[in-house]
């Protein structure tokens, strides 16, 4: 019997993947983004929207402000990105370190943040976030911040760049993903 070591290695690595080999694009995206250090905004729900944001982005701040009211049972899950300079990196480190809505609000208010570049766990979480965004960008038409990513009622993957004029209509389209937390 001839054993192909590369085939065995590939099978072994395949078993470590968190996504089934024939998963739908929405299931693959959920597996990728659910493992990112996101900040929950609203009650945990299978109906959720991942929001990839940058702390320096005025449109992201506008989206944050516009979503302070009811969203029809849809939870937002904010994922930090846009590490363009040291200040933005420290803002994102604050968000991923605390993973709280209050920390996210402080960042959007541009309140001062400390230097967290030596906080190993926070740096690791931010690196994880950036890696997820890079993988996500390969799968959708990622054009900038903010980007909303969700599964619709038919389980199809949807993404929207910017702030939609009618957020209620967008939230009405959101279907259930596989995981609540």
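Q: What amino acid sequence fits the structure above?
A:
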């Amino acid at each position: 019997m001839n054993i192909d070591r590369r085939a065995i290695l590939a099978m072994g690595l395949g078993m470590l993947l968190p996504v089934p080999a024939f998963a739908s694009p929405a299931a693959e995206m959920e597996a990728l983004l659910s493992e990112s250090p996101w900040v929950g905004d609203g009650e945990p729900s299978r109906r959720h929207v991942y929001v990839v944001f940058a702390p320096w982005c005025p449109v992201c701040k506008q989206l944050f402000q516009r979503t302070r009211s009811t969203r029809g049972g849809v939870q937002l899950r904010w994922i930090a990105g846009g590490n363009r300079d040291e200040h933005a990196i420290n803002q994102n480190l604050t968000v991923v370190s605390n993973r709280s809505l209050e920390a996210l609000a402080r960042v959007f208010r541009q309140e001062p943040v400390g230097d967290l570049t030596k906080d190993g766990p926070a740096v690791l979480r931010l690196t994880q976030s950036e890696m997820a965004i890079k993988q996500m960008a390969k799968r959708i038409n990622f054009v900038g911040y903010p980007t909303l990513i969700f599964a619709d009622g038919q389980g199809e993957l949807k993404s929207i760049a910017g702030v939609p004029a009618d957020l209620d209509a967008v939230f009405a389209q959101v279907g259930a993903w596989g995981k609540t937390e």
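Q: And what stands out in the fold?
A: The first helix runs from residue 5 to 16.
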